[in-house]
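ok so I'm stuck.
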Amino acid sequence: MILSALVFLCCTTLSAATPATPENPPAIGLESTTSPDPAGKAEDTRPDAPAPKMAASPKAELAASGGGEAIAPGSQPLLNSPVKPASTESYETRRKRMIWYGLMAAGHGTAAFDAWTTRRAVESGYGIEGDPLQRPFAHSGAIYATTQVTPLLMDYLGHRMMRSEHPLLRKAWWVPQVASASVSLGAGIHNYHVVP
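replied:
not stuck anymore, here's the structure
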């Protein structure tokens, strides 16, 4: 609706008698042939050239501005803080990666130990699975696969924390993996002692 109103207004400003291309263009900025303009007046209508941004030398500019200790335009950095790296790859070092792989092996190993001792205790009749999500798998070999889900999630979380931009998360990246391995190891030792 607004577009049609604009088109209507634009069309009504042009009269029907006015041709689309005028035969006699307006003489704006052209010298008339009937009365010659003096050369001085033609030069006055031209725009001024832009002023130079810097004087011939920085010393001359300092002298012109009144002295004092002035700062040259390009000498100061735009930011006083260090620039953040474009990639978070720099946070992950080779040492941290090797520790992460070691914790990953420990977490998955203790989860497998927990699954073995749980299945052994359940099949021997000395206990039942306490985790309601693991209970349907306690009587089959699927418990070995299902106990690997939590360490896998903790590995992913630890890796994300290692590469995080937050310093506190980068310092505590190992906590999820250690917690997962500790819980699995404790449950496995408990299950192992249940069976005589």
